[in-house]
């Protein structure tokens, strides 16, 4: 009998318990032995729940149980979760998590501990919720030089944008709906201001190029400053506005990563990704473009990815999955990247040879230019909106 514990019984933790309840038989068949949920560690009183007999409040119970194989960390944040993850790995437990904040900020250190202790630290659920994307990136696409990653990485903001545009409801109401469905972070600013997507694009960069990219080093712009007028103009001109995380390997060997709302042409598959769905496009020099699509948040989709990692960890007990990243990547700033830009409220459209989207609003698309040049142009023309355009 293999056993695991859940630390933090919120949306994800309770989803993992539910997936085990739903799928105990196929999980046991894949493992060749039953999987038992031995402990749930949570500060709340679980005595009135069906999990009363496995509820504990002291982490040391997990740490000191030599028969406990895997610990799921679904506490969130990077304080208690960091301490318990370090201690669980040091105690020789495999650790599985959905905690992108922790992986993005401390993954390098935690993976080094896992290597030293010959255990697995797996985090498929930290990017794209239920979408298998990290394992394909470091395993199936290992034969490629990865050139670019771009994706809708936050379910909450994609849900909000979709409900505002297609449902015609105001921002606050759409956010409340996302919270009620269990998509949003405890602090919605992490979703709305793009921090969550930033953590995810950093984890994708870490795995794609093997060098650490810390979230505080990248430019992150969310949807709070987005004017629905620009969404409407873009829509009428055949573009959708999507919050994208993007990471690139430049010709000079440096990397770049950022998060910003983009205009996406309707012909791009990412443009049609709505509601809580995420989509991640990866370009490899052998495979070309591949896209991973599915539910990016929510209890059962995220728990599906966690359970996959639990099974993988147990199947790799003696020969651990060797993944990790090393020293800091050398980063180019967004100001150095060239792409077309959307501007609104500017003047002298014809003089600079731009594609006009709405003459009455003074909205247009520039040719390819750096963010620095685009900002200077926007300032010179007195533009009210400036957004990158995905090519
Ligand atoms: N708040 C996150 C999202 C949860 O909306 O995508 C999944 O990481």
Characteristics of this structure?
single chain, 391 residues, six-stranded mixed β-sheet, 12 helices, alpha/beta, binds L-homoserine
Rg from alpha-carbon coordinates: 22 Å
Structural class: alpha/beta
> What spatial form do the alpha-carbon principal axes imply?
globular
**Amount of beta strand:** 15-25%
The helix tally amounts to 12
Helix content: 25-40%
Largest sheet, order of strands side by side? 3-2-1-4-5-6
Q: Give the biggest beta sheet.
A: 6 strands, parallel
Uncertain runs are: none
Overall strand count: 20
How far the N terminus sits from the C terminus, by CA atoms, comes to 51 Å
**Mean pLDDT across every amino acid position:** 95
**Which molecules are bound besides the chains?**
L-homoserine
Give the quaternary arrangement of the chains.
Answer: single chain
Question: What's the quick description here?
Answer:
This protein is of the alpha/beta class and 391 residues long. It is 36% helix and 25% strand.
Question: How would you portray this structure in words?
Answer:
By secondary structure, the protein is α/β, with parallel strands linked by helices. It has twelve helices and 20 strands. The chain has helices spanning 11-31, 59-63, 80-90, 100-117, 134-140, 155-166, 171-180, 189-192, 195-209, 228-236, 299-315, 371-381; strands spanning 2-7, 35-41, 55-56, 70-73, 94-97, 121-122, 146-152, 211-212, 219-220, 239-249, 255-265, 277-284, 288-295, 326-328, 338-339, 341-344, 355-358, 363-365, 369-370, 385-388. A six-stranded parallel β-sheet has the order 3-2-1-4-5-6, with helices on both faces. The protein has a six-stranded mixed β-sheet with strand order 9-11-10-7-12-13. Helix 1 packs across helix 11 (299-315) and helix 3 (80-90) runs parallel beside helix 4 (100-117). The termini are far apart. The model has no long low-confidence stretch (mean pLDDT 95). Bound molecules: L-homoserine. Residues 129, 154-156, 183-185, 191, 196, 296-297 line the site of L-homoserine.
